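hi support,

uploading two proteins for the ticket. first:
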Amino acid sequence: MPRSCLYVGDVMHRRLRPVAHRFVYRVFSLLVDVDELPALDRRLRLFAHNRRGVFSLRDADHGARDGTNLRHWVEQACAGGGVELAGGRIFLHCFPRVFGFGFDPLSVFWCYGADAKLKAIIYEVKNTFGEQHAYLVPIAADRASDGALRHARDKLFYVSPFIGMQARYAFKVHEPETRLAIAITETGPEGAIMVATHRGERRALSDAVLLRAFLAFPFLSFKVFGGIHWEALKLWSKGAQLHPRPQPPSAGVSL
């Protein structure tokens, strides 16, 4: 079972069609036990929960996005998909806000049962239009010999203006431990469109580690948000076609 920690690594996107494009950004991210958030707020000077700080995490940035307790939202979402956590631990992997500003295109909830076994993963996706949708994936007991979890879902939510809605996601992830490994391949009618990965190495969560992360990535939030628009501009300059934005799904979580 993972523990609350910080990961230092990189995010890579590789566009395969109809125009080729690739970028890699060095980043850090947090993995937090949602029940530990108040205690982390008290223990760490550089981390704040539901208030402004050097680094912060707000319940209103995730789940129902109205400040609802994250455990309550996750348990309800899982129950709606036939997954009972029975009080098991819930971890959130995300980018923190920095001095109150943040944008997190993909957050991941790792949902464990009372037996400490992974029961579900929730992929929470945001776009730059202020919209959000979550994909709930129940996890079977069996998995690949390398420990990887593989699953696929139809695309239901508009993200990039340069990729249409006729697409499907294939996920390959490992439970977060000493290393973080998330890989997503997006495929359309003509084949693979894009591959995205997020990889990182675990660091203990302490003020000293947070300070080093701040010194290494002082503009993390601006880097994530600004990088999205900068890479979009480069894609547009290469002739990538724009696709109209449909209304988001009426349900906030899809199974």
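and the second one:
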Amino acid sequence: MRTVLVHFTAAAASDKGRKRPANEDSFGYSAKHGIYVLCDGMGGAAAGEVASSLAVREMVGCIEHRAPDTQLPEAAVEALHGANEAVHTRAQRDRKLRGMGTTMVAVIVDAQRVWVLNVGDSRCYLFRGDQLRQVTVDHSLVEEQVRMGRMTQAEALNSPFRNVITRALGTQKKVSPDVFELQTEPGDLLLLCSDGLTREVDDPAIESILRLNLPLAELCDRLIEAANEAGGHDNITSLLLRAE
């Protein structure tokens, strides 16, 4: 079997949107250590921003300082649990932050192998051969209803409960992420995004933007512009990785 050497380039952009007073999304990455993270915080006052930024720092830091003999998938899950504990502990210590939490979607890369972890409804997409595919599964009330056949996708889009997520970091002592493994190919794009993008811009529109022959930073900006033009009701963050 021929081995293809793959390395990743990345870019990200974030915007508070047109309706929210502040941006509670956070992102961070370390190309050297192969870790890319995006979080969408929730909670009163500035608690969402605290939760998301704390979770990102904890996740990236844990991967950067992991033991050399630790396998990446196990290290990633351990780091996510550390992020959950950090957010939960901070919320318990500060009354103003009680109840805060955050979604998380993270990508860990090792050559061609990629592991995707998610908690909540921030998503990871794979764009390959001009086709977009959602990798993660939303942990939301409406998506669970859709998967059980109790609600159609159209009903889910218009449901008053579409903001209700069923899993988040920091709200409980323990959390279970979903973990997906991918084999990447040169030319692949991985998109991490908060629901401020996917609530405003449907998958075909995202796909059409990613087909543009533009630098990653410009693609991130185009995605945010599209979400704002569609209403910009929430914070919007996009993080793109390209396999070279």
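thanks. also noticed: Helices lie at 47-64, 72-93, 141-147, 153-158, 195-198, 203-210, 216-229.
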